[in-house]
Amino acid sequence: MSDAVRLSGVVKSYGAIRAVNDVDLTIGRGETVALLGPNGAGKSTTINMLLGLFTPDAGDIEVFGMSPARAVTSGKIGAMLQEGGFVPNATVGELIELCRALYPSPLPTAEILAAADLTGIVKQRVDKLSGGQSQRVRFAFALAGNPDLLVLDEPTAAMDVASRQAFWASMRRLTDGGKTVLFATHYLEEADDFADRVIVMAGGRIIADGSGAQIKKVAGGRTVSFDLEGASGDGLAALPGVTSADVRGGRVWLRCSDSDATVRALVQGGHSFGNLEIAGAGLEEAFLTLTSAGKE
Ligand SMILES: Nc1ncnc2c1ncn2[C@@H]1O[C@H](COP(=O)(O)OP(=O)(O)OP(=O)(O)O)[C@@H](O)[C@H]1O
């Protein structure tokens, strides 16, 4: 059986900006995958190509063994994008019916309304909705065709805490039913809480791919840096709590899983150091550590 999603050697540029740079990615049926990355990482561009909205400059994309455009028209993919207005003056219920009519075998209306938590606002006009309610209506549209793959670009942006919780609870019910889900997010916590697998993008490339626990372990680390003051950096990578060491221009950066143990060992070992700094590892740096650890 074909995979749910397969990208190979996918490249997409906007003029001189290479938004997606040689991405290979396979997602199996039934997986729930988070696409995690900072602004401009290339997540939306990847998603738009998966949905057939953009054509890659190079490489191939298949969704359930078909071209993205065919997968969309046959109702295999449901998408929730970041933006897009609604037809004014229509009610939530009317728009959902309109959307169902586009698909060969839509989900029953009551099921859509319950899954998107819209039952109480069916008669409300869509131009009078709050940001979070609008997101839930977009989610209902994504579900309407009863798709096998749900692709969600930052689905919980603009939702308050209670709506987020209700949204993810509803998603869990859908994935228990066997649907494949790919969602983009900026938040490691959200990726870890909900996804079986977290794919990290930065600068148009996939820089890490692992379980939420693996990614969190590295992202929770710290960096200890100091001037070597003429001493050599040899042996620092082997200090307690250090996962990797980098020496540049007389300064060393130690990525640490336990920075307290590292600093203690530095002091007790009589290492010379100046301008000591301890910082929370930035996500991007933490992810780079993860990828290089995966290559060892
Ligand atoms: N229509 C466009 N024209 C020119 N450059 C674009 C366009 N869309 C995206 N880009 C650029 O391509 C790169 C990738 O953008 P993309 O929107 O795919 O990232 P993203 O990870 O989804 O970011 P965000 O989390 O902010 O949505 C960025 O450098 C962005 O500025």
Multimerization state: single chain
Instruction: Spell the H/E element sequence.
Output: EEEHEHEHHHEHEHEEHEEEHEH
Uncertain runs: none
Per CATH, the architecture of the largest domain is: 3-Layer(aba) Sandwich
Mean pLDDT, to the nearest integer, reads 87
Q: What characteristic shape results from the CA principal axes?
A: elongated
Per CATH, the class of the largest domain reads Alpha Beta
Largest sheet: 6 strands, mixed
Attached small molecules: adenosine-5'-triphosphate
Provide the gyration radius in Å.
23 Å
What is the fourth-level CATH superfamily of the largest domain? Answer: P-loop containing nucleotide triphosphate hydrolases
Summed up, the helix count is: 10
How big a fraction of the residues is strand?
25-35%
Helix percent reads 25-40%
Ends apart, CA distance between termini:
32 Å
**Strands across the major sheet, in which order?**
5-6-7-3-8-9
Secondary-structure content class: alpha/beta
Strand runs, count: 13
**CATH fold-type name of the largest domain:** Rossmann fold
Number of domains: 2
Description of the structure:
The protein is α/β, with parallel strands linked by helices and 296 residues long. It folds into two domains: 3-216, 3-Layer(aba) Sandwich (Rossmann fold), CATH 3.40.50.300; 221-280, Alpha-Beta Plaits. Helices cover 33% and strands 29% of the residues. It has helices spanning 43-50, 68-73, 92-100, 109-115, 131-144, 161-176, 188-194, 212-219, 259-268, 283-295; strands spanning 5-14, 17-27, 32-36, 58-63, 77-80, 149-153, 180-185, 197-202, 205-210, 222-227, 242-248, 251-256, 274-280. The strands form three sheets. Strands 5-6-7-3-8-9 form a six-stranded mixed β-sheet, with helices on both faces. A four-stranded antiparallel β-sheet has the order 11-12-10-13, with helices on one face. It is elongated and about 75 Å long. The two termini are 32 Å apart. The mean pLDDT is 87. The site of adenosine-5'-triphosphate has 11 residues, from β2 and α1. Residues 5-228 form the ABC transporter domain. It comes from Allocatelliglobosispora scoriae. It holds the Pfam family ABC_tran. It is found in: Cell membrane.
